[in-house]
Amino acid sequence: MSESDNVLEVKNLNAWFGNFHAVKNVSNNYSRKSITAIIGPSGCGKSTYLRCLNRIHEEVPGARLSGEALLLGQNIFAPNVDPVELRRHIGMVFQKPNPFPALSIFDNVVIGLKLQGEKRKDVLMEAAQKCLKKAALWDEVKEKLQKQGTSLSGGQQQRLCIARALAVNPPVLLMDEPTSALDPIASAKIEELMQTLKEEYTVIVVTHNMQQAARVADFTSFLMLGELIEHGPSEVIFTNPKKTKTEDYITGRFG
Amino acid sequence: MEQTKEQFKFLSQHKLQTRLSGEFGDKIAKIVMQTVAIAILATLILMVILLVQMSSEAINEFGSDFLTNSTWDPISEEFGVLSFLYGTLITSILALLIAAPISVMVAIFITEILPLKLGQVLGLFVEMIAAIPSIVFGLWGLFFLAPLVRESITPFLKSTLGFLPFFQGPSFGIGILTASIILATMILPTITSITREVFKTIPQHQKEAALALGATREEMIKLAVLRPSFSGITGAIVLGFGRALGETMAVAMVIGNSSKITLSLFAPGATMSSVIANEYAEASAGLHLSSLCFVGLLLFAVTLIVNSAARFIVWKFSPLSKSERKEKRS
Lengths: 255, 330
Description:
The structure holds 2 protein chains of 2 kinds. By secondary structure, chain A is α/β, with parallel strands linked by helices. Chain A contains 10 helices and 10 strands. Chain A is globular, with a radius of gyration of 18 Å. By secondary structure, chain B is mostly helical. In chain B, a hairpin with a 4-residue loop joins β1 (72-73) and β2. The longest helix of chain B is centred in the first third of the chain and has 53 residues, at 2-54. Chain B is flat, with a radius of gyration of 26 Å.
């Protein structure tokens, strides 16, 4: 794979909460139009790592980070980078579906564009339709776009959140355990959706579910105690890991 | 094995003992609690009955004319509540206009902008305003605020907004405007602390969702904090309104006690509560006292309606509670 195919290159990323060193010296590359899963035991820093990549980690009091992450060649941690601007290029989907309760389905999708100052109705409508279709939600909500976002089911809410993240058209999409609050059928729909998202976006997904990682991800990273133990193509990680720690984890010897 | 038997023995004995005392204790506790609960309700009902009884003379004499008559003349024994109703509403509304925006801004500053510890300290100070006795507010109003209104605020308002009828006429310091400012200060902690509680119910992931979409801090506060809190803030404001309506002592000291309805905010006025406080001592019996009780009854009705409205708004229009209720049903 050539160097230019990397959308995001992380170099020596460290993250702290106060004195707690949550992510230790992680370096990794993420290539265009791929899905990378991050697995690891609870508290291994995988969510923190993900939250560094759109700099939402910094919003927690006492949190800080060091290192570099190059998004299309530009270091997103550089002092002259505005995190607000950055987050329009790296979207995020959270563990718990979190549509804005005061907004309609339509407004939930286009709120990112509205924040950027887009006011033209036709542009917003077009974007809403496009993103809801990409999130495989359009057919279910096209009749009730003005209803509250929170009136949908959990799985639909999560797809609404995905549509919301896609609306600002970010090259990279971060997903923090996007299916852990959903039932198996809703989870399957999200996984299916991730496969189609891959055709346009670089997806990095944190998951507790190793089967999910094996099913959907092209690459898998294994994190433990804040360190990146192993990274490689999913089929290698899950069938023939090089490190014993990885093998112990994926075979269920600890977790 | 031996040990578990011992434990079991202890358990069964213990259980028997608590069950014996429990049944008796439960009964007593139930009776006590029932009595207390009924007593609270009975107090409310008895209070209304007493007020109606005491004002019956005035009700029979004036009937609904009491509501539309603005004359209050103890000498010729002609009484009407309109000017006090006007005074109560105008001072309370003005107090809300002053206090509501400040309270919401203070609440945002405390919960969203200050670091947690500092915010708690400032929150404590704001709540301490609520602990200041009303009479102390009155003294402060008389000796500090009234001269300030007379010498600084009135000239300023006259020079900027003097073309409006509200800001014309002479100012003696004490009057509707001074009373409103005092009331605003007194309801500020109420609105601030309820608004803070509303903000605290906003889940962190809502704020992060807004930030993750590229919202600035200001946009995040508007989108993820203020919008879903709209009904809660409205409820807080209405509760503050309820408090302002009934506030007596401080208002009675600075409003000037005049039963004339005037548009000018600099002029003296009177509220429903201030007239009762000022006149009940001299109105020993008869129609005057009965009319004062009627004023009290009406004030009670107004505050009851306002407070019920506040509860209703919070309950009915909160988007968060709506989805929670739905979750509970399913």
